[in-house]
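Extended Data, panel c. Modelled sequence:
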Amino acid sequence: MNRASSGRNLRGDTELSQQRQRSLDLAREVFRIEANALGQLAERFDQVPFDKALDILLGCAGRIVVSGMGKSGIIARKLAGTLASTGSPALFLHPAEAGHGDLGLLCEGDVLVAISQSGDTQEVVAMLPTIKRLGVPLIVIVGETESTMAHEADIVLDAGVEKEACPLGMIPTASTTAALAVGDAL
């Protein structure tokens, strides 16, 4: 190996090492942002709505139906699975399918837990009149407490975050972590 190619390898190794360090620094920043979001959530989490949500869930004579769209839907699926693991009859209802007949899964005696960062997810909001007509209690886990879903809900659990880990603030990161934690707390 000549000196010139050896220098390129050293420079390439240095650049790779710096790139890996930047990646590690970014990963650590994501951990800090999400841990901070959970810390803030724990500090402001309100006893009264949480207790009322627990009372409704424990008194559920039917099934706990969990719904959410997009990334919130993924969190909702996980919550339904967790609830089922605890022995609670629970299922996931996809809000887009609800408008095409699946809303018929909801029955008197059920409870609906809906998850949405904005609280104005069109597909979930479209379910609200039927939910009200059936008298199904509605618990929402939302990032925006001044939203349509929050105003229509029986119980509002605030999962709002100050900042997402995404540099543009567009990709749900800390907000999905917060919603997941609220669901796990339930």
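The first strand starts at residue 64 and ends at 68. This feature is highlighted in the accompanying rendering.
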